[in-house]
Amino acid sequence: MAEPTLLTTSQMAEFVARGFLEFPGLIEADLNAAAVDELDQISATWGSPERPFAPSSGDPLDCIYPDPSAVGAVLRHRVVAGAIHSLVGHDATFDHDFVHLRPPGDVFQQPLHADAIIDTSTSFDIQVFYFPHEVAADGGGTGFVPGTHLRQVHETAVGRYQHLAGERQWTGPAGSVVVFHQGLWHRGMPNPGAARRLMYKIRLNPVRAQRRLWD
After folding, report:
1. What is the rounded CA–CA span in Å between residue 54 and residue 66?
2. pLDDT reading at 120 higher than 70
3. Tens-place pLDDT, residues 4-54
4. Taking the CA of residue 39 as centre, how many other CA atoms within 13 Å lie in the half-sphere pointing to its CB?
5. Contact 22, 181 (CB under 8 A)
6. What integer pLDDT is reported at residue 119 of this predicted model?
7. For residue range 143-200, what is the model confidence (pLDDT) as tens digits?
8. Residue 16 — φ and ψ, nearest 5°?
C-alpha cells in the first residue's frame, strides 16, 4: 500500500471549523463496483455468522476488513487512510459500522441527530461515509449541518428541528468519501429518485492523544 497522504494544516483547520471533510469521486470505478457487491452481501447476512469480514467493537483498524475485502481496500486508500491517521491516529480502533440502503421512492426521513457521545473528554471519534455510486440532487443524500459539532447535544435532542440555516444535503459522484466529526448533526434523507441509494458508514475511536497527527 502507498504511504497514507496525511491531511494538510489547511484541511485540518477546515475540519475543526466545519466538522467534516469531503473527497468527491476519490475511489475508482472497479473498486466501487466490487464494494457494492460486498456491501450487498453484508446487508443480506447482517447479524448472521455468514456476514463477510465482520469486525468486532474494539478491533484495531489495521485488522478489520482484511484482503480481499473491497471495503478494506477503500479504508486503506492512501487518502482515506491519511485522513483517518491525521484525525484519530494510525492505531485507531473499530467502534461500529452500518450499511445504509434506501430504495427508490422511499419517503422516510431520519430525525436530525448527533451520534452518541459516550466519552465527554476532549477526544473525539470520526465517522467515514463512503458512497460507492453517484448521489444525484434528486437522490436524497445525507443531510447535515456544518459547524454543529461545536454544539454538544444529546443525540436525539435536535430531532424536531427542520430547515436549519446552512443545512446541506450530500450530492456527489460515485466513489466519494466524507469524513464527519462524531458530533456533527446529520440525518438520512428520503430518496425520491429512481435509483437505490447505498452508503457505508464506519465509526473509529482514537487510542492516543489527537495532537499534531497531520502533516
Report:
1. 10
2. no
3. 999 999 999 999 999 999 999 999 999 999 999 999 999 999 999 999 999
4. 25
5. no
6. 65
7. 999 999 998 888 888 999 988 999 999 999 999 999 999 999 999 888 888 888 899 9
8. -60, -40
**Per-residue model confidence (pLDDT) at position 1:** 61
E strand segments, the chain: 20-23, 93-102, 126-131, 142-144, 168-169, 176-181, 186-188, 197-205
Q: Which helix (H) or strand (E) holds 31?
A: helix 29-44
C-alpha cell at 115: 451520534
Residue with cell 475511536: 205
**H or E element, residue 88:** helix 78-88
Identify the CA nearest to 128 among candidates 158, 171, 95. 95
* Ramachandran class of 140: left when φ > 0, alpha when ψ lies in -120 to 50, beta otherwise: left
**Distant-in-sequence, close-in-space partners of 94: CB < 8 Å, separation ≥ 6:** 55, 56, 57, 58, 59, 60, 61, 64, 202, 203, 204, 205
For 23, which DSSP code?
E
CB atoms closer than 10 angstroms to residue 21: 19
State residue 105's pLDDT score: 86
For 151, residues 6+ apart whose C-beta sits below 8 A from its C-beta are none
Q: Match 461515509 to its residue by C-alpha cell.
A: 129
